[in-house]
Amino acid sequence: MHDDVNTSPPMPSLREAQIAHTEDRIIAAATELFLADGYVATTLEAVARRAQVGPRTVYVRFGTKAALFKRVVDSAVVGDTLPIPVLERDWAQVARTAPTASERIAASALITRQIHERASPLFAVAQQAAAVESLIAAQWEQGREQSRQAQAAFWSRMASDGLLDPAVDLDWLIDTAAVIGAAETYLLITRMLGWDPDTYQSWIASVFTAISTPG
Q1: pTM, entire model
Q2: Which among 9, 71, 130, 179 counts the fewest CB atoms within 10 Å?
Q3: Which domains, ranges and CATH numbers included, belong to the chain?
């Protein structure tokens, strides 16, 4: 028997920690430049200078500007650079496991608000870049599909846990929620109506409640 064996994940080596630190610096520098100068004007060389690393380091770590931009956006969406999928994050689990429908919807509205608060400036950059960079356009489409998949996971779990009325058309609900929670919708609302994050979060919660309640 080996009950005393430590089964915790091994600590990263010094080299792994240094690599992670370097990548964090590069992502932080790239974020600043993409937001300040836009996608087109930002170069990998400029990112290297801002991060105080050699240009080769940026190329080796990320390969292309489009790949680096994707990492920047992905990091903004989840709030850090850890390789943990969105649905496996602690804050996502609340929206999937809370005991009542209202609690899950409230958690989902909060998550949607927080993601857009962190990432919407970069989403705006991506919208502009997609018009001139096919890889960014493809990433934008991929992001849309991932958002829809997240809605599908959320509402399907609600249904399987018995928290949705069986009369609800689940496919329609998923599609509608995906549009309501989309990055484009957030950008439109905040630009056109000037809503603050609290107002947006309240709106998401109330609309999600309405569309998931038949009658």
Answers
A1: 0.84
A2: 9
A3: 14-65 (1.10.10.60), 86-211 (no CATH)
Give the pLDDT of the chain (215 residues) as one tens digit per residue: 344 444 445 556 666 677 778 999 999 999 999 999 999 999 999 999 999 999 999 999 999 999 999 999 999 998 888 878 777 888 888 899 999 999 999 999 999 999 999 999 999 999 999 988 999 999 999 989 999 999 999 999 999 999 999 999 999 999 999 999 999 999 999 988 999 999 999 999 999 999 999 86
Q: What is the distance between the alpha carbons of residues 104 and 177, in angstroms, rounded to a whole number?
A: 14
Token pair listed for 115: 């993601």
Q: Which residues, 6 or more positions from 20, have their beta carbon under 8 angstroms from its beta carbon?
A: 12, 81
